[in-house]
Design a protein that fits this description.
Elements lengths: L5 H19 L3 E9 L2 E9 L2 E9 L14 H17 L7 E11 L2 E11 L12
Parallel strand pairs: 3-4
Antiparallel strand pairs: 1-2, 2-3, 4-5
Keywords: Endonuclease, Hydrolase, Nuclease
Pfam family, one: UPF0102
InterPro entries: Restrct_endonuc-II-like, tRNA_endonuc-like_dom_sf, UPF0102_YraN-like
Length: about 130
Amino acid sequence: MSFTARHLLLGRSGEDAAARYLRGQGMRILHRNWRSRGLELDIVCRDQKTLVFAEVKTRSPNARGVPGQALTRAKRSSLARAACLYLSEHDLWESPCRFDLLSVTPVDGSFSVDHLKNAFTLDDTAFNSQNW
């Protein structure tokens, strides 16, 4: 018998909803749950010529706080390190890129997706090349 925790199922469903939303916005999904060296990017996609690193935060409607509150300085730094690895491994340093946040909440058997483009920049993180 396979058992998956409810919060993991909610997270997976939220990422599916976020990917559908991004496709509906005309973006092309390149990778989901991309991992390297212990770091992860939820969704990597193209918005025309811009490479988008999309962080997905899914919360149940009765959870405390809002999904975006989980995008802490430490999380932003981790995402920045992962994005740098991605750019290196795919030789994409010349590509314009941005970090987006998708806050996903279940509503009446479906999902509400709030999309914040340019949720943060590298200047907003504790990240710097000497720490990487």
